[in-house]
Amino acid sequence: MLIGPGETMIGTKTESREARSKALALGLLVVAFMVAAMLLTARPAHAATFTVNSTGDQNDLDFPGGTFDGSSDGRCFTGDVLVIGDECTLRAAIQAANKLRGSDTIEFDIPTTGVATIDPDSRLPSITRTVTINGYTQGDARPNTQAQGTDAVIKIRLDGFDAGLTLSGASNSVIRGLAIGGCLADSCNTGIFISGGEGYKIEGNFIGVAPDGTSSLANKWGVILYDADGSTVGGTTPAKRNLISGNVFEGVLVTSNSSGNTIQGNLIGTDRNGNPLGNNDSGVALIFAGAGNRILSNSIFSNGDLGIDLSSTNAADGVTANDDKDLDTGPNHLQNYPVITSATTFPTFTSINGTLNSTPSTREKTRTFIIQFFSNTSADSSGFGEGKTFIGQIQVTTNRQGNATFGFAPTQEVPVGEFITATATRKDKGDTSEFSQANDVEEPVIGGG
Predict the structure, then answer these.
(1) CATH of the domain at 360
(2) How far apart are CA 106 and CA 98, in angstroms?
(3) Mean pLDDT value across residues 288-314
(4) H-helix or E-strand containing 25?
(5) I need a labelling partner for 254 at 20 to 30 A (CA). Which of 189, 332, 367, 444 fits?
């Protein structure tokens, strides 16, 4: 159980779910008021690059007391002059960017040799226009280069009860290279909250984890996609890998009919080295979400609930049973998971076999599914998942009864005593399942009798 500043321990799952429902509802109300206020004013028609050079929290001059005065000069300037020039805070940069049409950029050049910590006194403004916030422009920060884990160097830390970022209708915005944590106030509660719009990219961040990559810096939620489509959390390259761990509830929550999103290549529930640093609830939860949400090639491990939870109720509801021919409905169409029937390690290779029952192929259309395999040092307490180490994938096609069988040999042997799990993703639709039941890796049986 994780406890952040000002938090008390959450004693039961029931209390946890009631608390998060209240917190999320209040947070959404605050977001709605902020977005409405910001959309009422006109914006000059040009893009800009704003460079944050201060850890302060002052407003831009065009926002006395935090309220727009009706005239934007297109600059980021708090009114204070520093030794290095006119002061630009993150709050002022967001305020200035919200008044410009076009794709603005917020960079960092704060005079410090260590990590620059920004601790907002109140909730930061909602981002309502397309912007790229790039923490890797600060000092010697750099993205991850490792195939496993992450060696990213993070130099911008947003810390405190109101440290989270909210993006509302700011399609195609990018958030990169930040450590975000401590967002535990009712007005904040989420490291990165995305509401409305499409095409967002969240990449190379530590969310719920301090810049050292090993210490918890808990938010209530890590990332929420709320009525947001076609967005990506992570990506296909090491540089885009997020570390999303240590949060009080879900690491990533997809909700309110959000569809067509991709959660890929992240560390969810571990520290930068793969050691346990779990989110208190599910690693990834789709609750009242839409369809086509791909969950691929992540390391999801040591979370409090399921690694992946597809739920049509107002809370995580545990393993969703498979149904014949996959006719049920819900988030990701409640895609059936594979069934691992055996996992055997021979002297030179590991053999994994199993089946999938899902949407049948027809004469007119072939149904193809991506089966991804994972190895785990231990099985989840539910017996299903999680998926610590991605070890490869294959594609299978169902027959007219909806059945497919498969065999797979990863490029490296999996030690006897570890556990194999798998997910299924419908290739044409993008629906990813929950994790399969974990199957322990055994030695081959020689002889008989």
Answers:
(1) 2.60.40.10
(2) 12
(3) 96
(4) helix 13-38
(5) 367
Whether pLDDT at 445 is above 90: no
pLDDT score, position 16 = 52
User: What's the domain range around 395?
Assistant: 337-440
Task: Give 13's pLDDT tier (boundaries 50, 70, 90).
Answer: very low
Pair 293, 151 in one domain:
yes
Residue 136 lies in a domain: yes
Q: Whole-angstrom distance between the N-terminal and C-terminal Cα of the chain?
A: 49
Q: Which of 46, 89, 98 is nearest to 68 (CA)?
A: 98
| Residue in 214, 313, 230, 215 with CA at minimum distance from that of residue 273 | 214
Under 8 Å between Cβ of 281 and 246: no
Instruction: Count how many domains the chain has.
Output: 2
**DSSP letters for 190-210:** EEEEEES-B--EEES-EESB-
- Identity of residue 3: I
Are 435 and 353 part of one and the same domain?
Answer: yes
Distance separating alpha carbons of residues 110 and 51, to the nearest angstrom: 9
| Residue 64: inside a domain | no
306/382 same-domain check: no
Pairing, β 350-357 against β 403-408: antiparallel
Number of residues that make up the chain = 449
Q: Sort 84 into a burial class: Cβ within 10 Å, 0-12 / 13-18 / 19+.
A: exposed
In a domain, 57, yes or no: no
User: Which of residues 273, 291, 318 is at a domain's end?
Assistant: 318
pTM exceeds 0.85 for this model: yes
Distance CA 208, CA 211 (A): 10
Cα–Cα distances (Å) from 83 to 10, 179, 275, in that order, read 47, 27, 43
Of 34-38, 215-219, 428-432, the range with the lowest mean pLDDT is 34-38
Cite the DSSP H helix spans in 168-322.
Answer: none
Helix (H) or strand (E) holding 438: none
Token pair listed for 121: 């006194």
- 343 with 420, same domain: the answer is yes
Tell me if 211 is assigned to some domain: yes
Cα–Cα dist 381/397, whole Å:
31
In one-letter notation, the amino acid at residue 375 is S
More confident residue, 23 or 133: 133
- Whether 384 and 275 map to the same domain: the answer is no
Q: Answer with the one of 318, 348, 382 that is the final residue of a domain.
A: 318
Q: How far apart are CA 446 and CA 349, in angstroms?
A: 16
